[in-house]
Design the sequence.
């Protein structure tokens, strides 16, 4: 599994763009990349058996805030997963 990049940008972008670059993004930013889905939908992608077959990238857990560490995703992995889903959803030519 990849280790978090110590040189990753620390500031939060004002909006999510789909240009290049691979760095860690928060759960909220991952939801924005997925079209504004809810955190519950993201949880289902990671835990629900009916969604696990889609192969959504596993998060990286950082920090211990109480019992629940914060989850971050590699932006490039989420974008690659999204591109794969869009290709699989396209209708096949007759």
Sequence:
């Amino acid at each position: 599994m990849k280790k978090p990049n110590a040189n990753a940008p620390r500031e939060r972008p004002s909006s999510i763009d789909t240009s290049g670059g691979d760095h860690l993004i928060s759960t909220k930013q991952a939801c924005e990349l997925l079209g504004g889905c809810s955190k519950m939908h993201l949880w289902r992608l990671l835990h629900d058996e009916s969604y696990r077959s889609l192969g959504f990238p596993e998060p990286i857990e950082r920090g211990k805030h109480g019992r629940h560490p914060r989850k971050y995703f590699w932006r490039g992995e989420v974008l690659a997963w999204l591109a794969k889903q869009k290709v699989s959803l396209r209708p096949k030519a007759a």
Remarks:
- Residues 24-89 form a domain with the Arc Repressor Mutant, subunit A fold (CATH 1.10.10).
